[in-house]
Amino acid sequence: MKLLSVLFALLWAAGQQAIAAKQPNILFILTDDQDLHMHSLEYMPLLQKHLVKEGTLFLKHFCTVAICCPSRANLWTGKAAHNTNVTDVFPPYGGYPKVVSQGINNNYLPIWLQNAGYHTYYTGKLWNAHNVDNYNAPYVAGFNESDFLLDPYTYDYLNAHMTRNGAPPASYKGQYSPDVTATKAATFLDEALLHPERPWFVVHAPVAPHSNFGFGNDGYQESDAPKYAARHAHLFKDYKIPRTENFNPEKQGGVSWIKKLPRLNQTVLDYNDEFQRSRLRALQAVDESVEQLIQKVEKAGQLDNTYIFYTTDNGYHISQYRLHPGKECGFDTDINIPLIVRGPGVPAGRVSTAVSAHTDLASTILTLAGAPRDDSDGTSIPLSEEEEQTARHDHVTIEFWGLGIPEGKWGDYGDFNRSDGFGSLRHTVGNNTYKGLRVVSEDYSLYYSVWCTNETELYDVKSDPGQLHNLLSPEYEHIAATFTIAGRPFREIVPRLDALVLVLKSCKGETCIHPWKELHPDGDVHSLVDALGPRFDVFYERQPKVSFLKCELGFIKESEGPLEPNQFPTAETYSEEEKETLRKQGIPVSFRYQGPIGFWT
User: Fold this and answer.
1) Modified residue 3-oxoalanine (Cys) is at which positions (predicted)?
2) CATH number at residue 267
3) pTM, 2 dp
4) Residue 488 pLDDT exceeds 50
5) Buried b (16+ CB within 10 A) or exposed e, 193-215
6) Same domain, yes or no, for 437 and 366?
7) For residue range 45-100, what is the model confidence (pLDDT) as tens digits?
8) Sorting pLDDT into bands at 50, 70 and 90, what band is 214?
């Protein structure tokens, strides 16, 4: 009997060692349209308890394209939107049919994880335009178990339709959608936890706190505040959207159509406050689900080998910049979003200021799974203080194609009607295409963008966190005149930013991660400060400038303007006669240039 006890103990210890040595589990919670800048995380006490206090909050995390489907394609592939070519929520430029036609359904994170030995599970919203008619044309690939929300009911909180493991759509009319998906996520997690010998990837993607879209009398979907469960109706009745400098400002920031928006009246502002209260109430069901899922993992004894990610697809604005509820803009309200990570080796209660993007999440998860890929446009997010010291990021690519879509019953931008069912009869804006750049360090924080109208904007976010003072506007020339980085004047900073956008607007792979090397192939420039060296002034002044030939609703390469920068030359490129010509022009020749010398004349 004693021998059997010893044998049992040895077998148990061996089993525990095997479990400890196996690849880590991944629990991923992805909300829809959750803000960071209106402090929604602070109204989720269970998330604070289990994730913020037990993990690391990343305050400088960004989505690269501020709308659902393109952002999710970016997240699940690790590819920039200009490389996925999924740039809208509906065909022809986005949605599930575009995901399929671009080959993403057979080449994205869940499939890579399956190839690495993971069992994968997903419930909630995956793609826009994944609907009750095309759910099986083809079936979504990459998941051992799945239960997807389907259009056109995805955003109807009390009328969800879902397909479980490819079965015909089932109706959940009358049930609260975030509770439905929470229950399904818990069921999938129970299944995963039954097999401690194999790693798992479980995703819960509730629709909260996205606007509610329900069918109106005319057949179109009408937008209003999200629905919330009756048990949360009493909450946040005194909440008001923070009255920050950019809240319905007297003096408007932005360019193009945003610059022309009228101030919102009190009726709209009151509606917007209640709209945000509804968003916070809708998040309470998600908050409860966070605790339920984590407690299941803990009870199963697998918490020490599980990474938990909490994020959203894009941010949100309500009343900032005089905007109706919505997203699609390049302001931090829309692109600077929540990311919290808890897991082995991740410091508890830490706030990280490392710059990261959704492009990095696939690389991060694959690295944790022991199955990294070398074809990503992103890189692993530093999850520890030590890793952060050597992190490469100071930049994030920002891009958008298509429409600015107002939500809520007062939403109307007066441009033209979108009639595909999800803009309902609200007037949208058709020239909301732009290329942007976020550059962040301890010493500076900038947002630069070029619109399809060829209007430009640049904000010093460090001194102007509301992003109201466009330094490229004549009215703020006096501020621009005093703005410097590393002692270099404003007039020399702008060409560097423009050149960096030129690289990033068409980058792939390593170029997206180390864009300065594309401009300086010798590898002696790693940051904006490095690039500001005076010997590079002529080089940057003569770069092709980011511009558009036309405002398009999707990624039309022929309308994108210049796509490739010139590279800084090196001495070995030229004959002695050519070098002497460059010297006479005051151009140093200790560098490489891939192009005709006539560029310099």
Assistant:
1) 68
2) 3.40.720.10
3) 0.91
4) yes
5) beebeebbbbbbbbbbbbbbbee
6) no
7) 999 999 999 999 999 999 999 999 999 999 999 999 999 999 999 999 999 999 99
8) confident
**Distance between CA 485 and CA 121 in Å, rounded?**
47
The position carrying tokens 């599970």 is: 121
Local structure of residue 317 (DSSP, 8 states):
B
- 423 and 530 inside one domain: yes
In a domain, 399, yes or no: no
User: Rounded to an integer, what is the distance from CA 286 to the centroid of its chain?
Assistant: 19
In the chain the first and final C-alpha atoms are separated, in Å, by 92
Instruction: Using the 3D structure, point to which of 378, 393, 408 is the last residue of a domain.
Output: 393
**Is 514 in the same domain as 548?**
yes
CA distance 309 to 323: 30
* 68 tagged catalytic: yes
pLDDT higher at 430 or 109: 109
Token output for 23:
């690849």
* Co-location of 103 and 51 in the same domain: yes
Annotated catalytic residue, options 63, 68, 452, 512: 68
- 39, 268, 364, 374 from 116: Cα distances, Å: 37, 51, 14, 15
Give CA separation, 93 vs 86, 200, 254, 327, 399, in Å.
Answer: 6, 33, 26, 18, 14
- Confidence class of residue 129 from pLDDT cuts 50, 70 and 90? very high
Into how many domains does the chain fold?
2
Do residues 389 and 420 both lie within one domain? no
Quick: pLDDT tens for 491-543. Answer: 999 999 999 999 999 999 999 999 999 999 999 999 999 999 999 999 999 99
The yes-or-no verdict on residue 445 having pLDDT over 60 is: yes
Residues 381 and 428 in one domain: no
Residue 410 lies in a domain: no
Outline where 300-433 has alpha helix (H): 332-335, 361-368, 385-389
Local structure of 93: helix, strand or coil? coil
Q: How confident is the model at residue 253 (pLDDT cuts 50, 70, 90)?
A: confident
Structural domain boundaries enclosing 510: 416-600
- Angle between the N-to-C axes of helices 68-77 and 361-368, in degrees from 0 to 180, rounded to the nearest 10: 30
Q: Which of 342, 357, 433 is nearest to 394 (CA)?
A: 357
CA–CA separation, 497 vs 266, rounded Å? 39
CA distances from 191 to 126, 142, 258, 534 (A): 20, 17, 49, 61
The secondary element (H helix, E strand) that includes residue 145 is strand 145-149
Query: What residue spans of 505-541 are helical by DSSP H?
Result: 510-513, 515-519, 528-531, 537-541
Q: What single string gives the DSSP state of each residue in 107-142?
A: SSHHHHHHHTT-EEEEEE---TT-BTTTTTTTPPPS
